[in-house]
Amino acid sequence: MQELDGKKKVLDFLCFLLFLYLFIFSLVLIKFSFTEVGEYILQITRDNISEINALGFGWLLALIMQSSGAATSALLAMNFAGIIGPIVLIYMVIGTRIGTTLTALFVSLFISAKRRDFRHGFEIGLANLVYALPIAIFMFLLEYFFSFFSKMGNYFIVLGVPFKITFIENITMPLIKLITFIPEYLLAFLGIFLLIFSLKKMPVFMMRLWGEDYIRKKINKYFKKKHFSFFIGFLIAVFLTSTSITIALLIPLIISRIINLKKVIPYIIGTNLGGVVDAIIGGLVIGETSIPAIFTYVSFSLIGLFWLFNTDLMFKITKFISKRTLKISKKRAILFVLFFILLAVFLSII
After folding, report:
1. Domain around 16
2. DSSP output for 151-162
3. Which string of DSSP letters, residue by residue, matches 258-300?
4. What is the mean pLDDT of residues 7-11?
5. Under 8 Å CB-to-CB from 187, ≥6 apart: which residues?
6. Closest-CA residue to 258 (of 227, 211, 219, 232)
7. Which class for 2: exposed (0-12), middle (13-18), buried (19 or more C-beta within 10 A)?
């Protein structure tokens, strides 16, 4: 029995490595294919669109891909190919951090629970939105009036900061050369599909390696202290390479009242810092042109650390919106999620 379990762990680890390779491969494939077809598609995403449109586009893309890291990685590849201008890219990256908050909200809709218990589950996603929205507004204004993030990112490029994995093309281009007979636009869609697919599968095999029940027990054990809660969220997000999945993992626990929202808030802050890993990997694959966007993406999580000193405020705002403003029921939660989606669409086209 132990031998079978050992073989299963090895298989799960190999599957994780496979999907990690597919993640890297998909980024190189997108970069390669969009270089050829970039001038013919997504012309609206160049620097002539407004900052609000760019924010909405990033928001919407993260909604579709259910991952700010995946959305940012795709945007980096399109920027490298010349499809997305470097200025609007910054606003799109900020938008992805809002869009990714939908995942936990969406997951809570599908859990069967009494109204009060459902509200507790929904509040995790709502707290993540409360975390993200003020930071996004602050960063948007900082970039709009002072071009802070684009200037700082370009400064790092001028300094010659090494930001590229040199062996990446050596392990991916031989396979890409074998499929160059496929039209470039189909390769682009294949790359996007593999990007989404690999980012969904990597966390699955990470969960199998440690076990979902084991992870949950450890989470609950160390949640009593704020700094433990923060570091657990950070470490799990690093391993799972997904902020939204790491947060959604706790929804069943909070609905069953094993833990409460107040203990979860430092964890949410930690996951948002740990979840930058997949975007950083994407930036390393693309190269130095991605530095301004990656600087923006990481800055979002670093600014978010200020919430650690105001966890009570974040808790009170979430509870106020949930109980007093929205008076959450499943019906109102669905309407809120629909409004969240439609707002992203509206901002991207106005």
Report:
1. 2-349
2. HHHHHHHHHT--
3. SS-HHHHHHHHHHHHHHTTHHHHHHHHHH-GGGHHHHHHHHHH
4. 84
5. 29, 32, 33, 179, 180
6. 219
7. exposed
Structural Rg of the chain based on CA atoms? 20
Domain total of the chain: 1
Q: Which residues of 175-206 are buried (b: 16+ CB within 10 A; e: fewer)?
A: ebeeeeeeebeebbebbbebbbebbbbbbebb
Tokens at 174, concatenated: 């031989």
Tokens 């902020």, residue located? 243
- Give the Cα-Cα-Cα angle 256, 258, 264 (nearest 5 degrees): 105
- Looking at residue 134, its pLDDT comes to 97
For residue 143, pLDDT over 90 is answered with yes
Residue 166 burial by Cβ neighbours in a 10 Å radius (0-12, 13-18, 19+): exposed
Q: What is the pLDDT of residues 254-267, one digit of tens each?
A: 776 777 889 899 99
Sequence letter at residue 312: D
Helix, strand, coil in percent for the chain, rounding step 5: 85, 0, 15
